[in-house]
């Protein structure tokens, strides 16, 4: 009996060892497969993607599912003539789940790829700086300290956190006739006509350019500075001078404007060039006198006078009287409101900036960030916005380090997580066209005629028109504390409406900063280029559908003691 028991015990020990061995082999094989897949994903990446952006309409598998705005399903059709929706939860549909899973897969791949790229060791900074000197057309001046509170190179600012190169920064500054181009953090470009005061050791400029391996683009609080004057002759000049109007001159122009110049036969071009070299965004002309400065409380560029009171001649020396002056905006950027940062302490209030897609949310974020000096966050992640300087895109939307959070979500759960919200509403006809343009041509482009005339457009309208209405109705129903802003009112009365938004965010700002925002009102996301041809994209059936939704939303707003929709919305 003991012998049998001993044999059984020996067999079990062997079996246990065998099972352990097979388990170890299985785990090792699985790990190798996962590592191989991760390596392939990191090498291939989503072709054509920009930064950490999700793939656009033309890129990668499941492109529509990867669009962050498609994640917010339009949901159920809105019953016409009512301001309430059936309790349907669109977020749990199979299509939505597939969309979210696809987004997460793409983001994981991009983050892994970025992590692998960040681990590459940097070479000697001095050597790279020398290589950059010989490779690029501008003359490398040196490495300088960068003080974000008081920058010397502040004539113009550009961001590209994916494709910044030394040549790109040099050309951008040369085209605007600046003498120096400086790069910092590997992705930020600054232009100006004065060198920074404090030099640094060459090895402190050690950040590799995001779009050019082997080149140095500054460092942490360190600028790689290039002289680009020699490029200006070859660069296509874009010294656009914008006429701002005829205004009553301040009582004391020399106290109002920090720089002045008297020149016989003074022209607009001469005065603008003088003020640009002084790095002022405003050129003011009265007779033979040229003044440079900023819009201020003394000279806010409001209440323009009749143009007949100022000379309409190109030669400004013939200005009608000494009581009026001509104002022009130079190509120099007004930098009094471009500094932004994250909140130093977590916000007590979790505030949403909510809108239907295409309603101007990005533009409103630009205005809020420049007015308050703090970044805005986002419920989503848009690589194109992050690359253009919206750094809150990369911050987690619940971090409370941003002044407010962009969202297109609706539904009880998604709304009640916020303490308050700015609800931005735009004419649905304009919103639908803007979002359709974005889907087929990005933030700055226009969809082609073939897109408008295809089946995509009527399908889009039928799906999204009800969402425009349900979005507003849900926020009116579930929002705890709302400030309703109409896009058209914000566009027409920028300063008063922006003041309302800033006060709602529990912030105070100076009038000069608001005037700076007004001077930079368009930002980097105003559509440009050829618009679609003149044709009516909306059929009568589409108009009837949208008009009913407009009346429903207008009635709901008034029923909750808000101002109704602007008259241009409401069909007459």
UniProtKB/TrEMBL annotation:
<dbReference type="Pfam" id="PF00685">
    <property type="entry name" value="Sulfotransfer_1"/>
</dbReference>
<feature type="domain" description="WSC">
    <location>
        <begin position="240"/>
        <end position="337"/>
    </location>
</feature>
<dbReference type="InterPro" id="IPR002889">
    <property type="entry name" value="WSC_carb-bd"/>
</dbReference>
<dbReference type="InterPro" id="IPR027417">
    <property type="entry name" value="P-loop_NTPase"/>
</dbReference>
<dbReference type="InterPro" id="IPR000863">
    <property type="entry name" value="Sulfotransferase_dom"/>
</dbReference>
<keyword id="KW-0677">Repeat</keyword>
<dbReference type="InterPro" id="IPR051589">
    <property type="entry name" value="Sialate-O-sulfotransferase"/>
</dbReference>
<comment type="similarity">
    <text>Belongs to the WSCD family.</text>
</comment>
<feature type="domain" description="WSC">
    <location>
        <begin position="137"/>
        <end position="229"/>
    </location>
</feature>
<dbReference type="GO" id="GO:0008146">
    <property type="term" value="F:sulfotransferase activity"/>
</dbReference>
<protein>
    <submittedName>
        <fullName>WSC domain containing 1</fullName>
    </submittedName>
</protein>
<dbReference type="Pfam" id="PF01822">
    <property type="entry name" value="WSC"/>
</dbReference>
<feature type="region of interest" description="Disordered">
    <location>
        <begin position="47"/>
        <end position="83"/>
    </location>
</feature>
